[in-house]
Amino acid sequence: MTSVVSVVERLPVVVGVDGTPADLQVVDTAAEEAAFRGVPLHVVHAWPGRLVSWSRHRAAADQPDGRHLLELAIRRVQLAYPSLVVGTQLVDEGAAEALVRWSARAGLLVVRHRDEAGLGHGWGSTAAYVAHHSVCPLLVHRGAVPSRGPVAVAVSGRHTASLRSAFEAAARAGCGVTAVHVREAGGDTGDRLDTALAEWADQWPDVPVDRLVIDEDEVAYTIDRASRRCRLLIAGRGRKGWSVEAVYNSGGVAGGRQLCPVLLVPPGWPVGGRVPAEASRPAGY
Questions:
Q1: Which residues contact 229 (CB under 8 A, 6 or more apart)?
Q2: Are residues 180 and 157 part of one domain?
Q3: Where is the UspA domain positioned along the sequence (predicted)?
Q4: Which of 129, 158, 233, 284 is at 20 to 30 A from 177, Cα to Cα?
Q5: Is 282 part of any domain?
Q6: Residue 267 and residue 272: Cα distance in Å, rounded?
Q7: What's the pLDDT band for 168 if we cut at 50, 70, 90?
Q8: Residue that terminates a domain, selected from 141, 167, 200
Q9: Cα–Cα distance between 181 and 211 in angstroms, integer?
Q10: For 114-138, how does the pLDDT look when each residue is reduced to its tens digit (9 = 90+)?
């Protein structure tokens, strides 16, 4: 009988591209993740197609452009990672819906921010929608990844996949972990927090750990500071999506400064990084 673990651990890294020059950077990020994990990379591009009913000529012109973009992405990835298996998909549907559908069959979904409305949070409607609905962990690329600083992770004191992800990322980058905990009114989760941190610290003894306990009114400031000073910001999405709102409504791209990537882990994502057996490879992959 085929092992479920052996199947699900081969789920690909999926990256969404929309046809702009900045997409090359996000493809690079996704390729690095896929190569590190030893899994295939799949590049997904949504083109207007039938959604642009007012201009058949424009829709027909977009499809070849989309195919050309995917060909460029494949060549770029294969130059950097010759042995990496790369697949592509040109889909005739909305980008947000397509990416959420693919997230049910991926181990990691990668998108870039796009401040298309000038809102200041640097995400854009597609990334914001996917952040709330992605089935797998979502990595939001927000510019050049800083080469210094720790990995910051929001922790609750529970045994979660986001905390494991933080230690794995820090060990890979050769840096420390800053565990940020929001103090609960009238409660003390210090012992639980210490236990959760100690468990992963035992597995990664070379990763330094700093603990930062803040009040609720300090969340926005802390996220903004972490976005500018850390290599990676990790948070569990939560069942109500409040952490997503906190991340993309805090900070932004003020002054044109680059912000670190954000990794959002959905509720219920297994601590070992494994997904349910029904999450299978997309048709045509």
A1: 146, 149, 260
A2: yes
A3: 13-140
A4: 129
A5: no
A6: 14
A7: very high
A8: 141
A9: 8
A10: 654 444 444 567 888 898 899 999 9
